[in-house]
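Why do we care about 3D structure at all? Because function follows from shape, and shape follows, mostly, from sequence. That is the central idea of this module. The next example makes it concrete: a single protein chain, its amino acid sequence, and then its structure expressed as tokens.
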Amino acid sequence: MKTFFLAFFALFLFACDNNTVVAQGQDNVHDLTIISRDGKEHKFNVEIAMTAAEQRKGLMDRTHMDADKGMLFYFVEEGERGFWMKNTLIPLDMIFIKADGTIHKVHDSAKPNDLTSIKSEGPVIAVLELNGGTAKTLGIMAGDKVINAFFDNTGTEPPAE
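And the structure:
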């Protein structure tokens, strides 16, 4: 009986350890809002890819992403960025964002597994990947604002037309 309780206790500790790891992984998810020129707010729950390993992996090998989800690739400094779709199985919109949260460029529905580099065509500090067609459906375009703690913006006012 004593052995049973020791085994049960060890299993309980192991299970708690696994839950801690899961909880830590959830810290990597942030709310993000895009404010369109017409003042509409589009809310997403995004994973953050900051490390080189996270950025290399990105959304590769995923077969589905919920409509309100995405991934934000954040870099330390603004610079020219290029992304490809190697091993990415779902079409993605790529939204290139400046340090103040202004959308610089939107690339609609990048093709799965395409090795063509999609360039920012100017310095950006982040790239937001959403399901392909989301930007077009919601009317998200260059000049709109992304509100999130990673950007140098504090208000939620719509961008000037």
